[in-house]
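Give me the fold.
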Amino acid sequence: MTALRDELAPLRAELLSLAEGLAQALGSAEWTVDPRRIPDWHPCAELVRTEDGARLLIQQERLRPGRWWVHGVLPDSGTYYYRHDIDAGEITVTRAKTGAQVARDVQRRLLPVLDAAVAEMSARQHRHLTDVHEVTTVARRLKRVPLTTGQAPGEAKRRNGEDNVRTLRWNQGPGTSWTSPHAEVKISRARFSGVEITCSHLTPDMAEAVLRALTASLPAAVPVAEAA
């Protein structure tokens, strides 16, 4: 193992030199080399963009050792469902090129794809957080109905992006029995816009309570005569 590590030492040094030259050519104030990302057994170098944490990963191609493989990596700050299926871009270049030459290839062929990927990830994050806020707002209104039960999403649901759905139940709390009339309401983001509320097993009284809770904070309607 030690012999293999020593054998790869020149490759690690070459990667570090290329990464430093690439960072300088792209702008040392915008890109920095992360020396922790140059492991012993599978050498690769990584540049981190200061503005948003996007990265460039540089490795030797396995089947064509005379070429570098450079690909974009989305910021670590985005959870997997924000990044899922987004192409962050990749290119290959000959190892004969200098850092400045590789930088020109990166700027022309890779960064436009990476920038678009970062923008898409940010848009997904914004949409998801908006959905969570709207669903939570509706759930908070419905919890004003007496004998409402329902828990906020746990850490696992937040981690998996399932915190934009809430389920509430009525007449299943203290002082009730399994024979008591009970209702269930699922609150989720509608497919195209707004919030979707799906109710089941509501009695007329429960339906009225739900409507009162949903409309309690809405402005009162202006009579037609006054509006005229």
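Residues 143-217 form one domain.
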